[in-house]
Amino acid sequence: MKLIPIPAFEDNYIWVLIDGTQAVVVDPGDAQPVLDALARENLQLQAILVTHHHFDHVDGVDALREATGAVVFGPARETTPEPRTAVTEGQTLLTLGMNWEVWDVPGHTAGHVAYVCQPAGESPLLFCGDTLFSGGCGRLFEGTPQQMLTSLTRLAALPGETRVCCTHEYTLSNLKFALHLEPGNADLVAYQAWCLAQRNQNLPTLPSNIALERKINPFLRSSEPTVLASLQAHDAASVDQLGAFATMRQWKNNYR
Ligand code: ZN
Ligand code: FE
Fold this sequence. Notes:
Elements: E1 2-8, E2 12-19, E3 22-26, H1 32-41, E4 44-49, H2 55-58, H3 61-68, E5 71-75, E6 85-87, E7 92-95, E8 98-104, E9 113-117, E10 125-129, E11 132-133, E12 136-137, H4 145-156, E13 163-166, H5 171-181, H6 186-200, E14 208-209, H7 210-216, H8 225-234, H9 241-253
Helix pairs in contact: 5-6, 8-9
The structure holds zinc ion and fe (iii) ion.
């Protein structure tokens, strides 16, 4: 199968997964670049998957549904464009000839879901919206640190080769903060150099993968002694993993 990130807005990616002539799109915040890609590659859109209700993930849904007749799946606990099939934790949807698991991953928004699938003979795919970013995670607009930590801990337990399809190109800015916390992390230093080279050629840093994120993403590393020590030096309230995670998320909000 072919996986394409379509750049949209300032720094969004709209992911399209293609099997032959059939395609699925995740979080189409804008319809036109998706319609252009479908026309260019002569594709039929089977389904539109939505992770959460923010405009940059849903504003293209109606136009795409009308133009293609694709079915729409969206998070049961959030309001997203109708008509749709509401999905939640434990449900499986069938499209592109395979099963997609739905996971509830609250934190960025209250009803945020992720989609996990395993194309035959390929590494698994995770479409995680604004929950997990490469080197970072989404802001807590509606959820608590505990919810986000639980969501991220679940995602981090996916097989290491799982490809992480995040919806924003925030990687370099995330790595700057990550290196502030872990200046001695050699994987992080090497990854930053690779990401810089990618961005200098105007190429995406995504998809990432779970094994890499476990090594470099501080939001998956809030129990690592080096990360904890940096957070405790910043804010003494970082006594345990949850306190450290909350400190880290708060700090990153204001970090430049
Ligand atoms: Zn969002
Ligand atoms: Fe977003």
